[in-house]
Amino acid sequence: MEFKYFSYLYPIKKDIINQQKIKMMNATAEILKNKIENFSPDALEAFAKMMESFEEKTTSAISKFHRDEILYRIQFHNENPSTKLDFHENISELKKYCA
């Protein structure tokens, strides 16, 4: 049996790289936090508006009434697992669409 040195070390190396990336991300976040704290009120307001424009706004083709009804049925089904969902076969897919 041949010993594969690099394949043995790969998971360890991958963890070390991920830890380094996390440290770099935390340092970057701290730098940004310090810069934002020093913004003038006008600059801070403009920055907040700019950040809001980046947020994804999800719109659903399902009306709020129907979403509430579906979520109620899912909750009921979770509390009573022996019941059948009469409107969808895959509950995880339905949760994804209605969440």
What would you note in describing this structure?
The protein has 99 residues and is mostly helical. Helices cover 72% and strands 0% of the residues. It has helices at residues 5-37, 41-54, 64-79, 91-98. The radius of gyration is 24 Å and the shape is flat.
The N- to C-terminal Cα distance equals 51 Å
Count of DSSP strands? 0
- Oligomeric state as shown: single chain
Helix count, DSSP H or I runs of 4 or more residues: 4
Beta-strand content bin: under 5%
Taken from the alpha-carbon principal axes, the silhouette is flat
Structural class: mainly alpha
State mean pLDDT (0 to 100 scale). Answer: 76
Which regions have little confidence, pLDDT < 50, spanning 5+ residues? none
Helix proportion range: over 70%
Radius of gyration: 24 Å
Biggest sheet architecture: none
Order of helices and strands: HHHH
Name the descriptors:
4 helices; mainly alpha; 99 residues
What secondary-structure arrangement, pairings included, does this model have?
Blueprint: H1 5-37, H2 41-54, H3 64-79, H4 91-98
Summarize the structure.
Helices cover 72% and strands 0% of the residues.
